[in-house]
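A reminder from the course coordinator: this example appears on the midterm review sheet, so study it carefully.

Given structure:
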């Protein structure tokens, strides 16, 4: 992770801890990351040289009206110091630091199609029991899995996909033919 992103993320975490709002700020940062992912022009606006810094900071207040004042001010500082190109890395680093401070491990869950929230919660609960700590899973759609799920946490892979089951069957069948 970039040192700049890490430094900004650490500063925001310090504020979150001081304000006793780590969970709240983490939720807002995740929402902001989603806004950026869904609207890539948002970053272009914040980094636009056609607008003054004051105008860009005003846009932050207008667009992030439902966010806490600390998050809004934090984004304004990033705009003011011309660090918008690091914003996604900063948000990711902040999320990682929040998880570490709360003893949560983050992983990826690959599915062939979107899962219902109830199903996702059941999987999180089961993986949390196996890992002996709370797990936060980020969903990625991978149609090649055909069905089932694959969960990756650090270097550990829990593969319950149909694709994996078919591959195992092929290996077993080829062994029996020999």
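Designed residues:
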């Amino acid at each position: 992770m970039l040192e700049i992103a890490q430094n900004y993320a650490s500063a925001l975490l310090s504020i979150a801890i001081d304000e006793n709002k780590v969970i709240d700020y983490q939720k807002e940062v995740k929402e902001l990351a989603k806004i950026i992912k869904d609207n890539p022009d948002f970053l272009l606006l914040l980094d636009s040289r056609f607008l003054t810094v004051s105008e860009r900071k005003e846009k932050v207040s207008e667009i992030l009206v439902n966010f806490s004042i600390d998050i809004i001010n934090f984004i304004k500082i990033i705009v003011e110091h011309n660090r918008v190109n690091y914003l996604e890395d900063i948000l990711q680093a902040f999320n990682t630091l929040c998880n570490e401070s709360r003893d949560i491990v983050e992983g990826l869950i690959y599915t062939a199609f979107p899962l219902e929230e109830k199903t996702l919660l059941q999987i999180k609960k089961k993986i949390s029991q196996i890992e002996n700590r709370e797990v936060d899973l980020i969903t990625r759609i991978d149609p090649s899995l055909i069905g089932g799920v694959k969960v990756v946490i650090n270097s550990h892979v829990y593969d319950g996909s149909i694709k994996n089951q078919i591959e195992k069957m092929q290996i077993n069948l080829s062994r029996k033919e020999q």
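Residues 3-100 form a domain with the Peroxidase; domain 1 fold (CATH 1.10.520.20). The two ends are 48 Å apart (CA to CA).
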